[in-house]
Amino acid sequence: MAKYLISFPSAAMKVPDGEWEAVGRDARAVIRETKEAGVYVFGGGIDETVPPVLVSANGSAAEGGYPWAPPLDGGFTVLELPSREEAVEWAARIAKACRCDQELRVFQFDPES
To answer: From what superkingdom does this record's organism come (predicted)?
Structure first.
């Protein structure tokens, strides 16, 4: 089975005022369903109040991420599923609950992980 990343950037969340509570309720319900189905690996959201730290190969650290890369923010879920088709189905359920499109990616298999 492969692990799939289902994610969205913060800017994709264009939820009208008054609907945030329903979005949270619906999103948590889908995550509970993934856990009940035994496909949930982990998930969460990037804490945008904490700036990233870029750690170099020599061990030095500097506040901020790669200057050339877009910011990494938003939310994500990692599921372990037998097929891409099932991953698309779960991504669609998450998209409906979150009221925004989701990006689906597959992790490369690493026999050491």
So the answer is: Bacteria
Tell me the H-state helices in 1-98. 20-36, 84-98
- The set of residues, in sequence order, having a beta carbon less than 8 Å from that of 82 and lying 6+ positions away, is 1, 2
- Residue 113 has a pLDDT of 77
Q: Which of 8, 2, 1 is nearest to 77 (CA)?
A: 8
pLDDT in tens, 20-38: 999 999 999 999 999 999 9
CA distance 81 to 6: 12
Residue 60 makes CB contacts below 8 A (sequence gap 6+) with none
pTM of the predicted model, to two decimals?
Answer: 0.90
The DSSP secondary-structure symbol of 90 reads H
Residue 35's φ and ψ, nearest 5 degrees, are -65, -45
Q: What is the pLDDT of residue 110?
A: 84
